[in-house]
Queue: 4 jobs
Job 1
Amino acid sequence: MSILNGKHIVLGICGGIAAYKSVSLLRLLIKAGAEVQVVITPAGKEFITPVTLSALSQKPVVSEFFTANTGEWHSHVDLGLWADCMVIAPATASTLGKMAHGIADNMLVTTYLSAKSPVFIAPAMDLDMMRHPSTQTNLALLASYGNHIIEPGSGFLASGLEGKGRMEEPENIVKYLEDFFSKAQDLAGHHVLITAGPTYEKIDPVRFIGNYSSGKMGYALAEECASRGAKVTLVSGPVSIKAVNPAITTVHVESAREMLEECRKVFPETDIAIMCAAVADYAPATCSDRKIKREHDDVPVITLVKNPDIAATLGAEKNDSQILVGFALETDNETVNAEQKLYKKNLDMIVLNSMRDNGAGFGVDTNKVSIFKRDSDPMDFPLKTKAQVATDIIDEIVKSL
Ligand code: C5P
């Protein structure tokens, strides 16, 4: 029996050629035992008729806020609460833009904004629309809100062109949902500590030593763990992103010392700790309580002191049942450095990303990693979104539990 049996699924359909594939998707969801409520945009109805969809789903298709002749109100709030998940397939560029920016001018977008459940988005459009910076920015925004983007495939497009933009095949969307729900609870009962982002080491009230870390990888890990049932404590340096899942408690810190202090408070209660933060190795020995002025000809000298190594400190304190995972961001001699850190910091696993790989490292939405464990050969993964990399990392951790 499919894990989707009995699940309440809102299927959102937008106005794109790929809407014809939504019929197969609906059929497969129903076959898997799900109860499906279709919500279609006005443009969607130009591509596929509500009659087909309501016959297959055995429910009236919702498109307008109310039924014109009776005045019956369709509550997007009730629908958002009813859903165990919402799947928007196909998601057009226009609807992605509306969802990303809260333009709630149709039933599909209002339902999305009211949804408390996980949301899966399967974009479909022409390759140029897909790679346009506004589409990419909207997708990145939607992913940062905790939505799951089911990446479109490459191939022959309705426009006659070839490229990325084909909606993922219905069978694979169903598989994606089944994987999501079957994994959903494999971290239930676990408490995961994650560090993320940079640290800021104060020089004076207006200046600091920091780095380019955006926190995206650590936050993606936190969302992945929370969506798989874990309680998560996320100790985060200064970043401009927010955690979405309510199972994540974010503790905001600035310096490495503060980060260590907060980690030590929760570490004894955690069974998994993932050190993803880009911690400054050094901090100014003193912090001036006033802004250092450019009064003299002399150049000020800032004396640095070593910061504590949070991963190594927790490594020395950990017990046998705790799993400690580190990251290594290297520019050269990658494998040797990663392996050395694995043992030196008493880690169970280390995730290596090289600054030499395009699309990996600070700020970007993608990453390319290799995972080193003590008892097995390194595993190399291809370039993926940080959300997908988070899934790979957590899959490996779960195997070690
Ligand atoms: O030694 P290096 O900084 O390359 O090690 C990286 C790993 O150690 C990362 O997991 C990082 O979060 C962690 N680290 C730490 N405290 C430091 C420096 C690094 O926890 N002061």
Note: The longest helix spans residues 386-400.
Job 2
Amino acid sequence: MTNEELWKAVLGEMELTLSRANFITWFKNTSVVARDKGYIVVSVPNGFIKEWLENKFNKKILQSIHNLSPEIREIKYSIGRPKLEFAKQDLSKIILDRELEEKTEIPVDLDIDKLTNLNKRYSFDSYVVGSDNELANAACLAVTKNIGKLYNPLFLFGGVGLGKTHLLQAVGNKVSENKERKVLYVPAERFTANIVEAIRNRTIEDLKNQYARLDLLIIDDIQFIAGKEKTQDIIFSTFNELYGKNKQIILSSDRPPGAIPALEERLRSRFEGGMIADIKPPDFETRLAILKQKLAGKNAELGDDVLVYIATHIQKNVRELEGALNRVVAFSQIYNKVPDVKEVKNILNTYLNAPYRKTSPQSILKAVADFYNISAADLIKRSRKKEIVRPRQIAMFLLRDETKLSFPEIGQKLGGRDHSTVIHACEKIKAESAVNEPLKQELVLIKERVYNSFDK
Ligand code: ADP
Ligand code: MG
């Protein structure tokens, strides 16, 4: 089987399990570029896609590859540059980039505990606490000392790459030090997949009993159960079961419970019934501390000025911060030298010069609709339902902010609405986002989708 055939077969399988839009978003412009003993290298268009494939789809992809080519046990993802850019670069730069990319590759974690799903890599010791995550960190620590008794459930929320999974797993690792305790960490998407499979195999009662026996159930990225009724059903009954026995539940999400669309009221109120802690992007001091901590674990030396440079320029999230650091460390290892700020600036070019931000009204409408779990057509229709009106206002606001459309043009795009309606919506969302943290985060998340989507 050639690489191309292999990947085609994998894509065919993935397509069956995903919505069309999702499939295109994550798998467009991917290909297998290399294959060696036990692993393949998949080229992806950008870091965002890479992250998602690694974190959300790796297992599924691996499974489907395994069926076709059992010797492959690992997938490495590599960011392939769009062809256009090659012309502008000289060959040595391309080679360096390749080399850097390879060295920057974070090894696939093989030491995930089969029983708990926990990865030992995540601990409280390796988690840097700053003002933006101290509440979440404290709440998690407190839970490890009072399982099921203090904050139940504990609900963490915050943007991508801010350390939610890290904290959740740190709690799991800590709690499972006591071997008598049954702990399970599960991403919501896998939770859903397990349920679907159990229903198909008529083992749903077994699965429910399994959950009911836990001392600690951790569900990561719970926003993914939006609109999934059966999953919500099972979560609800599991929740009641565990809660009734003082067993601990911890959840994470990219947004607060109230902002998860198509979430049953009874679940929402359960999620809000314990402790809610948010994680905000780290400030400069925390970013610097994180860099120092991550550097300490590596065999490399970097000047403080270089760390300050990275911490100043990479602000969005910790994962990116780590990626940038890895890249600089890789450079210093390849060239066997301590890079200065000027060199670091060059090395980080791809991080700092994000591609020109360009979007279309369609991609904004689609991103908003996807985010709120409605269809883009709903945004345009005349419906006055609350679940539609709000996303529509947000779409208007984003269209105004992110494109050059005039108010009347925006009204046109949204089913011929009057420009005064658009102005009102834009002002409302703008004013609200200044004081309403969850809304601000929602806008960030939607924009993230707009600019990282290739489904245009
Ligand atoms: P999320 O689940 O919120 O998307 P992750 O927990 O996956 O984010 O974090 C992304 C990466 O950044 C992980 O490698 C994690 O270990 C690291 N990380 C995030 N926050 C911190 C922190 N405060 N201290 C140390 N490492 C962190
Ligand atoms: Mg996570």
Note: The pocket of adenosine-5'-diphosphate (ligand 1) is lined by residues 126-128, 133, 158, 160-166, 290, 318-319, 322 (CB under 6 Å).
Job 3
Amino acid sequence: MSIDSLSQESRVFPPPPSARQASWIKDLPSYQKMYERSLADPEGFWGEIAGEFFWHRPWSRVLSYDWKNKIEIRWFEGGQTNLCANAIDRHLPKHADRTAYLWIGNEGEEKRITYGDLARDVGRTANALKRLGVRKGDRVALYLPMIPELPVAMLACARIGAVHSVIFGGFSSDALKGRLMDSGAKILITSDGAFRGPKKIPLKEMADAALAAAAKEGHEVPTCLVVRRTKDKVPFSLGRDRWWHDVVPEESPECPAEVMDSEDPLFILYTSGSTGKPKGVLHTTAGYMIHTATTFKYVFDDRPEDLFFCTADIGWITGHSYLVYGPLCRAASMILFEGVPNHPKPDRLWEIVAKHKVTILYTAPTAIRSLMREGEEWPAKHDLSSLRVLGTVGEPINPEAWMWYHRVIGKERCPVVDTWWQTETGGILISPLPGSVPTKPGSACLPFFGVEPAVFREDGSECGVDEGGNLVIKRPWPGIMRTVYGHHERFRETYFSRYPGAYFTGDGARKDADGYYWIVGRIDDVLKVSGHRIGTAEVESALVSHPAVAEAAVVGFPHEVKGEGIHAFVVLKQGVGAIHESPLRDHVAGELGAIAKPDRVQFADALPKTRSGKIMRRILRKIAEGKPEEIGDTSTLADPSVVDALVKSHGRGGH
Ligand code: WT7
């Protein structure tokens, strides 16, 4: 394949010459050669890369795995290292004064944190955690806003070998309770509150409720460390609660990095699946480190003079991998932004880019779509000429949004890298490289080094060119998750049972004649709402926990800004009078968090079910999409007349 022969069915954007020059990989044949080598000789390929990191003891074997029976994956077995030492200590001799984070607060406050500062803050925090009784292997829950203490606490955990579990600050206290219990957290670190755009979120109150509920259900978390952020007066539980500023600053900044085996756990991050309970995705040390650092290097073409701005919250995997571990391992400089893109005005991101001369911007399609709607006058007010590479992540990007990003933000000079990956994959798996891979709007393009994807039919045979099927990965990459925490069987069942010997992603995709991947979206009951992953089953169980609700079924529908919206069909209990939809929507927000609030609630007398009682979601999806003509055959339903009633009531009241 050469650039000239790339198929003409869609628009192709060759890398701009400036990007080519600055790139680690300068043309498509070089990418192809390196990719082929990474598959032919994974030991050599990854071994050489790993050699650039700091090790207490080198590994004896690059990769061993079993994807058929036990489902085990080991990278750099026998090796001993510490991720925090690689992310910080390794850089101190030369780069102690380099900016690690430029923190920008919700209201515009700024704080520069160098690698030297980070070393000191992390050392103190690590010692404080030890003093509070945290030992290697213990789980530490972090429920914090986007303030420097969040990455500092993560790195402190990594330093002493504790396993962090970050819970996104937008999750409810109930969601927090579930995660505290499932991970068996020994300590919770939170803050008095959080600023988020025009809103203030009472994190400590929510944390208190979660701690109380966990204790009631048998899991006592003995310590809660509280960072002061909003300065609001918050309840304090004597004996359990400690202020960060009382505990951390008095510690010594020197704390030796614990010697960690390559496969020692690094963190747990909960994510939604197709059943009601979120999964604790477990990532380990060496493979994750090498994968995130290497993808950061090649996908964003990082240079020492770059300023990288990833707008994701650290509560999601994007923040873990590309606001903390990957870039820090590359001694990169980053913006850490506490606020939101449209506060105080819709030019907040563009203002930051111009003021600080951001060179690489990584954001979500949903943010691009919502800023696109605000109009071109907002980016036009600012000088965006420092930008060099633009990235997107989290959901499929529609070509219109891609083109806007490319034209209005990148001024047609910056390659757009549409990066496909998952919480489970740890780092980017499919993405163009800025200087070598021509892009096609809407396609995540080609696999990263060492990644071998395929599109499978239901029967496990490989799809032909442009034939839609299920996306799988045929061999392990270094950043793959190692288990579902405490539920290894669920790990096997979810990812390895559908196609024995391959990792099943849960995404639908097709591969075009040039080998480019086009990701269609989830094929399971998982929604991507503003890029956030939400299981329909979670929303349903939140709805039925409301006293008025007898039954609920939740489906996604196409949403112009959010990508997908949440449509809930609700059957009320007999004898309950009519109620409004808003208490139900608020109830879901209270149970799960505001991101899971249904956009629409449609009341129904009954749901379409087969004679065996299975809800026919296919039909509900068509109703929610407003395409009743595509419903098709309803003869297998126990009562087909239910469908007519739903079609009639759709779009009428109730939302
Ligand atoms: C799911 C994973 C990747 C980190 C943030 C989200 C969808 C992600 C893309 C993309 C199309 C994408 C997939 C995937 N997704 N990136 N570039 N193009 N779809 O991680 O919450 O674990 O979600 O997000 O459906 O399976 P996540």
Note: The mean pLDDT is 96.
Job 4
Amino acid sequence: MAVVDTLQKAGFEAYFAGGCVRDELMGLAPQDYDVATSAHPEEVLRHFPKAQKVGVTFGVVLVRRRGAAIEVATFRSDGQYDDGRRPTSVTFSSAQLDAQRRDFTCNGLFCDPIRGTILDFVGGRADIQARCLRAIGDPARRFAEDHLRMLRAIRFAARLNFQIETSTLAAISRHAAALAHISRERIGQEMRMILTHPSRRRAAQLLLATGLLQPVWPWPLEPAHVQAAKLSWLGGLPEQTGFALALTALLCDLSSTHKAHTMPEAMQKLWVLSTQETADLRFLLSQLPVLQNWKSQRVAVLKRILADSRAQDLLALYRAGTPDANAIQELEARVRELSAAPLAPDPLVTGDDLIAMGQRPGPKFRAWLEELYNQQLENQFPDRTAALTAARQLVQQHSPPRPHER
Ligand code: ATP
Ligand code: MG
């Protein structure tokens, strides 16, 4: 508000623009406020000397106000798009032309917070009212300019619970294959936003129906009934769900037919996942089958899984993919039972103990420690003395007899 006020008092046009206007009209809390203005970047900088230039060629300046960063962008028209990603040039223009270069009518509104008015050059208010997601201008041309807008359409339609207008939808289906030309980073960022939002099931349904998933997915898509199962899996996840967890739901039907252990790395490359996301994906994909067969697992295996920081995600995934409520209850009862005692107690036997028994660190050494810890988790040792006795036995059983000294 203060930014708009300052610019207006200096004689410029200045409005809130895009997503924040849409969200306020819909009674949602805007994530951030963007300002569009007739002031050129150097004029914005003159009034806000501490502002940061983020994309002066595109006319964008970042002004910080009470901890929030407000993007102040000069009204502009985009020039030619040569690469399906970015305009080769921009020219500073008017509010009306600035509205026209935006992607969807619901994102093309301005609000003058001082006068309390809405400026609508694109029919955005009526479309918001009708819950309709419509490209501004000719959809085919707009998606050819910037292919990423097709994914944005899915994201907004799902998130806002809008229907995609017929010619916009048809243009997406026709141009879907072009998504393959968008950078992996941008695809990954959009997919992260799409799949971490509670509307992920509808979004995935739209991605499949429009053919947008296939160009950015390395595996063949499954038959319709498997896709339906996958969607219900996605729909069963908790509202607050991280990227790795949602992605696992999208992948786990495939993991029976493809090499599950290569999937996390493949996804990391494809959608530029972080190291943490990739590790989480690996954990969830590899441990889900273990949890699904929990009745035949040894206690130590289950306790190790439950002690992991991602256990709640894994359980959420199991619940989402298990239609049988009794099976879920049974597992939950078992989890409660196992969690009654500490899931990850300090080991009673350590490497130092094995060294004191004359052993040297190595693969065998590690395997012994692991087995001793498994036995500890299975309550086989009343105390450390019992654990050390077991360690000595293990070492003796497996150590080759010393050659006789000559
Ligand atoms: P969110 O709440 O997710 O931030 P938003 O509508 O603010 O949604 P942003 O990606 O932050 O979306 O972009 C701000 C505005 O810039 C949009 O509302 C839209 O008007 C315009 N915009 C962003 N990306 C594009 C694009 N690829 N093509 C055309 N206009 C775009
Ligand atoms: Mg925004």
Note: The pocket of adenosine-5'-triphosphate (ligand 1) is lined by residues 18-19, 31, 34, 102-103, 107-108, 146, 148-149 (CB under 6 Å).
